[in-house]
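step: validate -> pass
step: tokenize input -> pass
step: predict -> running
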Amino acid sequence: MTTPLWQPSQASLEATQMHALMQRINREHGQSLADYADLHAWSIDNLEHFWPLVWELGGVIAERRGDSVLARPDAMPGARWFPEARLNFAENLLRRRDDKPALVACDERGRRRELSYGQLYDRVARLARALRDSGVTPGDRVAGFVPNSEHAIIGMLATASIGAVWSSCSPDFGFNGVLDRFGQIQPKVLIATDGYTWNGKSIDTRERLAQIAQAIDSLNRVVVFPFLHDAPDIRGIDKGVAWDDYLSNPASDIAFEAQPFDHPLYILYSSGTTGAPKCIVHSAGGSLLQHLKEQRLHTDLDADDVLFYYTTCGWMMWNWLVSGLACEATLVLFDGSPFAPNPQVLWEIAARERISVFGTSAKYIAACEKQGLAPGRDHDLSALRAVLSTGSALAHESFDYVYRDIKNDLLLASISGGTDIVSCFALGCPIRPVYRGQLQCRGLGMAVDVFDDDGKPLRGEKGELVCTRPFPSMPVGFWNDPDGERYREAYFSTFPGIWAHGDYAEITTEDGLIIHGRSDAVLNPGGVRIGTAEIYRQVEKVEGVLESLCIGQEWRDDVRVILFVRLKEDLTLDDALRDEIKRTIRANTTPRHVPARIIQVADIPRTLSGKIVELAVRNVVHGRPVKNQDALANPEALELYRDLPELQH
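step: predict -> pass
step: emit ->
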């Protein structure tokens, strides 16, 4: 049996909300659940009893819940949760209206702004009134081009209070990246920053905003808040209005619009692997209930906690973080580089703000180790009780680093789920040990399994991560997919009636989970999902490039982006052309899309139907076999990618 790196004391285990729930189930349902395995099995065998318990535990505020819990329970997709319920997401996050700190917003410039729950409610009330005055009604979209600041949360809550739909991306997205997303959903109002800071550099976004405002004709208003400048000049932005002017109304109360459980709340975006990003619509009730479960039970979050997650507003962990308000916790926000103005900045904030739950990416933890940081030695982390990590698999060495150099007595929870479910399939467990390299458990109420190619469950072997029963945070659907065909194709085409997530995973002998990476071609540098199509669209603009192929190369416990280009005849890839390609990608997407290596090739392998084969190339680069070469029109081209010296350093 593997030796755990950490395990809860009996006293701390018995003090958790998860333990209390287990005892309640034993009393009220005549069970004798003894450990997490028992609890998980009961939760998925009794979905119609389990999720109402989560509702009660989370104190969900609703106009009504209704008697029905799950309609069409065998339909995947098609099951409906709490079909009679009516609630408002924002009302559940704004249940507290006193002087307790709700938000502490920090950034790499050293600024700190604090809002109490009462102040947050007041600002949401005024923005909600302004949005209504701009014609926003239930079901309309409000978009955010926003850094991770209080403005983004105020914008989301005001939108949700009306029953409108919030969608955001971070301001490092280029014009095309924004248009690929917001252009599809036709927002009525855009809430946007005047700029942002990254690694000490100030980036003004007003010119890009002016382009966006011209390109999206559905916009009634572009509300610009000062983040880079104290008083930005926004006269060049069509339909632009300053944040303070927009909020200058006397509203002091919020008329929360109660909506059905599956009413749209968020639109998140797929990585855009095969074209424009898919617009994934998530429900208000499903997001709320799933996050309450994950935060209260799996993270043991309550009103005494200070919750931090390093994220941008273009990543679903931002949506997850904000739900901490429903637990009445204090949220700490940070915008900027996690290593600016110095490599210790996030740990300095953790000590100063008494952060109890610290969330970040596997890439960040690895980078801290490489920088030689010893946060536990250099900072007072006495309040810290849990570290959460996601975005990519947490390396075994990073587990060791956390317990050696951050804190030896904490819950290290490597968590995994994604944009598709705005939550987790596997995550932390405060009543279980932590084992090196493993995610502690499959989530409660989530019938997660690992299947082989024939749809048979696997144990101790790698296979496809699946979920075999409905769960509340399944997407409502995709935007502009009226018959649901694209939605079904995305998740239910591999195993009909079963959610296939696209992760390559393994259930361990300890009943934990190991994620071995994506089973598709999505790139994942630094834990940020990137679709190859987003890169191809930019590379094709460069004169001299005929076509390109992009893969993620596993490199030093991370993934780096490798771009192969086929150039016009007699052209040779030189530094000038490399720089032009990188500039074009950076200007129109994000800095994370920029390849670590750009390599010229004479040919690009493709299928008989003309599709390029990223996965085959990735396998060749990693020395793995390529299956089904008969499907390739030019299988000999694969040899061009084998043992390339440029990929050895």
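step: describe -> The chain is about 30% helix and 25% strand.
step: cleanup -> pass
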